[in-house]
Amino acid sequence: MRLEDAIITTVSGRAVPILGDDIDTDRIVPARFLKEITFANMGNYLFYDLRFDETETPKAHPLNDPHYLGARIMIVGRNFGCGSSREHAPQAIKRFGIQAVIGESFAEIFAGNCKAIGLPVVSVSDGAHALIIDHITHHSEALLSLNLDTKTLQYGAETCHVELPEARRQAFISGTWESTALLRVNMPAVLEKAKQLPYVQGFAS
Fold first, then answer.
1. Measured in whole angstroms, how far is the alpha carbon of residue 14 from the centre of its chain?
2. What average pLDDT score do residues 109-118 get?
3. For the purposes of burial, counting CB atoms within 10 Å of the CB of 40, is it exposed (0-12), middle (13-18) or buried (19 or more)?
4. In contact, 7 and 174? CB cutoff 8 Å
5. Neighbouring C-alpha atoms within 13 Å toward the C-beta of 96
6. Of 115, 130, 144, 154, which shows the fewest CB atoms inside 10 Å?
7. What is the spatial distance between Cα 156 and Cα 88, in angstroms, rounded to a whole number?
8. Mean pLDDT in the chain?
């Protein structure tokens, strides 16, 4: 991916509500799925034990609700992503098709892991959160638009302020969250530094 292709300034689409506070990474992706050696199938395991019973029959859950099929934004509660620091949780969310997560607050390591894969997570106030949940519950077809430039979320006729650390916001709007693309852009400097390191001289040459 080129750096310019990694720029994320807006995310728009329908939203799905995931209610509850302190939802930890073990609920986001159960531990038994961590044995896979790639993240390729993680989207299949998102909230697996909450979505399926022991016979793999779907249970009542927002991600199984056809009204929210194809949602690109997930609305969550307080302290989302707490618990284990597993990378699989944000990988599962993104690979399911979610492109942004909006909540009242997030576990810091979880938020950092989301930034590393280009998945914006932003916070809103308690009052705004309640209004957003009410809006998408009664209007599942409604489109939301998250703007990282202006730090706003538009839903229906309403607009609210969102928060995220400035360094993280800059990484999204500049594309520098994508570390491989960043290395490619700075390859001359990388090669110059490599020449100074005996253990990578073969690479530098």
1. 15
2. 97
3. exposed
4. yes
5. 28
6. 130
7. 33
8. 93
Check residue 184 and give its pLDDT: 74
- Say if residues 77 and 55 touch (Cβ distance below 8 Å): no
Q: Please, what is the Cα angle at 176 between 81 and 7, to 5 degrees?
A: 90
Residue 192: enclosing H or E segment and its boundaries? helix 187-195
User: What mean pLDDT is predicted for residues 129-152?
Assistant: 97
Cα separation of 134 and 119, whole Å? 24
Q: Go through 142-165 and write b for each residue having 16 or more CB atoms within 10 A of its CB, e for each that does not.
A: eebebebeeeebbbeeeebebebe
Write out the DSSP string of 50-93.
HHB-TT--B-S-GGG-GGGTT--EEE--TTBTBS---THHHHHH
Q: CA 204, CA 110: separation in Å to the nearest integer?
A: 35
From 118, 86, 121, 88, select the one nearest 102 (Cα to Cα). 121
Quick one: residue 127, left, alpha or beta (phi over 0 = left, psi -120 to 50 = alpha)?
alpha
Check which CATH number belongs to the domain holding 137 and give it: 3.20.19.10
| Enclosing domain of residue 136 | 3-204
The alpha carbon torsion through 19, 32, 95, 76 (nearest 10 deg) reads 10
With DSSP H G I counted as helix, E B as strand and the rest as coil, what are the percentages for the chain, rounded to 5?
A: 45, 20, 40
Phi and psi torsions of 101, nearest 5°: -125, 130
